């Protein structure tokens, strides 16, 4: 149909929940038009849960079971999101640690090179040069 159900702009994080009004095929479209320079990471969960409409003949226990099932699903979704987020942060930290390590190695090598050059220069400065 081409009708946008949810649209988010200028958000670093967010959630959306859509209840399908009718059966059929739905498409997910993601755009990065606000900032094409930086990559974006998108994760989502799709649930195909079908419930019979509530009526007054439903037992209170069944209503409570449905409510608990929905709460449990929300907890599972949040846990999956946290796992993905932790993985992204761990990759960022490992990348930063590797850069710091290489920068430190380069600085140490440069320091030793400058020390060696200074020793050589000072030694040659104090050498007695005889010209005959």
Topology:
Layout: H1 60-126
Q: What does this protein look like?
A:
- The structure is a single chain.
- The protein has 132 residues and is mainly alpha-helical.
- The protein contains one helix and no strands.
Shape: elongated
Number of separate strands: 0
Report the structural category.
mainly alpha
The ordered string of helix (H) and strand (E) elements is H
Residues in helices, as a percent range: 40-55%
Major sheet size, sense and barrel closure = none
Strand portion, in percent? under 5%
The chain-level mean pLDDT equals 82
Q: If helices are DSSP runs of H or I spanning 4 or more residues, what is the number of helices? A: 1
Distance between the termini: 99 Å
What would you report as the Rg, rounded to the nearest angstrom?
31 Å
Unreliable segments of 5+ consecutive residues: none
Short description:
This protein is mainly alpha-helical and 132 residues long. It contains one helix and no strands. The radius of gyration is 31 Å and the shape is elongated.
Which terms would index this structure?
132 residues; 1 helix; mainly alpha; 51% helix
């Amino acid at each position: 149909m081409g009708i946008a159900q949810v649209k988010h702009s200028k958000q670093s994080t967010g959630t959306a929940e859509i209840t399908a009004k009718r059966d059929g095929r739905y498409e997910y479209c993601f755009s990065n038009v606000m900032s094409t320079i930086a990559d974006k990471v998108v994760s989502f969960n799709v649930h195909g849960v079908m419930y019979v409409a509530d009526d007054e003949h439903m037992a209170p226990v069944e209503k409570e079971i449905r409510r608990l099932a929905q709460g449990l699903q929300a907890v599972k979704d949040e846990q999956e999101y946290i796992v993905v987020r932790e993985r992204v942060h761990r990759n960022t930290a490992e990348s930063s640690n590797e850069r710091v390590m290489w920068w430190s190695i380069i600085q140490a090598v440069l320091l030793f090179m400058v020390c060696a050059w200074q020793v050589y220069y000072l030694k040659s400065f104090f050498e007695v040069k005889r010209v005959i």
